[in-house]
Amino acid sequence: MIKDKVRGSLIGGAIGDALGYPVEFCNYGDIQNRYGRQGITRYDLEPYWLDKSEHTGMAIVSDDTQMTMFTACGLLNAQQNNEPLLNSIKEAYLEWLTTQDSDYILETAPKCWITCIPEMNVRRAPGNTCLTSLKGIAKKRTPINNSKGCGGVMRIAPIPLFAAVNNRMGIVDADQLAGDAAQLTHHHPLGYIPAALMAHIIYRLVQDEMPSCSKFETYIHEGMEQIKGLYTVSKTSLRAMENLVGMAMELSKNDQPDYVNIMEYLGGGWVAEETLAIAIYCTHRYFNDFEKAVIASVNHGGDSDSTGAVTGNIIGTIIGYDGIPQFYKTDLEHHDIILRLSDELCDIQNSTVMEYNIKV
Fold first, then answer.
1. CATH code for 2-40+149-347?
2. pLDDT tens digits along 222-254
3. What ranges in 152-300 are assigned the alpha helix state H?
């Protein structure tokens, strides 16, 4: 059961990413003109920005899934090498940087086996904040920014998945680690608080054999109360996060079209609190319907790959891998690799309860 949920979360995130990637930066009218009245509902295997000679026949993923996969590798490396979790995740992100920037070369041999996969060494619209922050870390400088972009929240799903299996980590520690992992690159409180809340929600869903919409609501409210205790100096940001999440759940109950609710009230998902709020809206409105949820999450004029990825992470945890329609699994880039990472997160031998209390 738990392995199916872990697989569902990571594959679900990659599906939402791949579905939304071709329409990132497109307004809703352009999406409809290109894909029809319902917008994009199936993979575009020939994305317009690629030359025909570069078409692979696969639904390609963006930097969101790449970085999520490196988060998973960082956790696995920490367990295998008995290293601090946050430091191992940071090192994994620096390996991702080598796949995106030829000017940065590792001083040691790669620890993440996915680094050597050719398709991982292709730039997929990496976020400037992630690149700039990691380049600073690579030069032993502490990056300084006030970014609340979604590049922190879209990559942390492996953390609560890893933590919830066999209760390896308590939920508070998992929330904190997710927030700290996002804060490696994004320093505005709303750049990392949503990552902690997302971790809390996924952790609870992983351990719930029969999740319901009402329990989903409970986990969201519980998570908000938890992060208020973790981030006591960020009251303004916490209030903004709570208000936006509350609006998302209320909007999910009305009859307006999804793109109206998203763009007019929740924003485009370019910043982390909007990304998570859109994912909560789509999951809450289409609870147990993976297809409708991910379609709603990408058909708007915002950061469609990231809103799709986070929605897929959450609803994929709810319904599990077996509940995801097969047509979304077929032709998904890195499908088998993501399944392997998912299973490794579940199967690593050391299931000792771990404590996490290291701050960034």
1. 1.10.4080.10
2. 999 999 999 998 899 999 999 999 999 999 999
3. 158-164, 171-183, 189-206, 213-230, 235-251, 258-261, 272-285, 290-298
Query: How do the domains of the chain map onto residue ranges?
Result: 2-40+149-347
What are the tokens at 28? Answer: 């809703």
User: Residue 327: phi, psi to the nearest 5?
Assistant: -65, -20
Q: List, in sequence order, the alpha helices (H) in 289-334.
A: 290-298, 304-319, 326-329
What tens digit of pLDDT does each residue of 334-358 get?
999 999 999 999 987 654 556 665 4
Contact yes or no for 71/158 (Cβ under 8 A): yes
Of 166, 163, 150, nearest to 1 (Cα)? 166
pLDDT for 349 equals 60
- Cα Rg of the chain (Å, integer): 18
Listed residue (25, 59, 20) closest to 40, CA to CA: 20
- CA atoms of 181 and 92, how far apart (whole Å): 11
Q: Give the CA distances from residue 54 to residues 47, 51, 58, 121, 330, in Å, rounded to whole numbers and listed in that order.
A: 10, 5, 11, 15, 19
Classified as helix, coil or strand, 149 is strand
Give the C-alpha separation, 295 to 40, whole Å: 7
- DSSP 3-state percent helix, strand, coil across the chain (nearest 5): 65, 0, 35
Query: For the whole prediction, is pTM greater than 0.90?
Result: yes
Instruction: Record the tokens describing residue 151, joined without a space.
Output: 């590049």
The confidence score (pLDDT) of residue 30 equals 94
How many angstroms separate the CA atoms of 360 and 348, rounded? Answer: 26
**What is the rounded distance in angstroms from the CA atom of residue 237 to the CA atom of residue 242?**
9
Burial (Cβ within 10 Å: 0-12, 13-18, ≥19) of residue 104: middle
Rounded to whole angstroms, the Cα distance separating 338 from 324 reads 15
Q: How far apart are CA 212 and CA 235, in angstroms?
A: 30
Q: Phi/psi of residue 60, each to 5°?
A: -80, 150
Contact 239, 117 (CB under 8 A): no
Output the six-digit token pair for 36. 């029809």
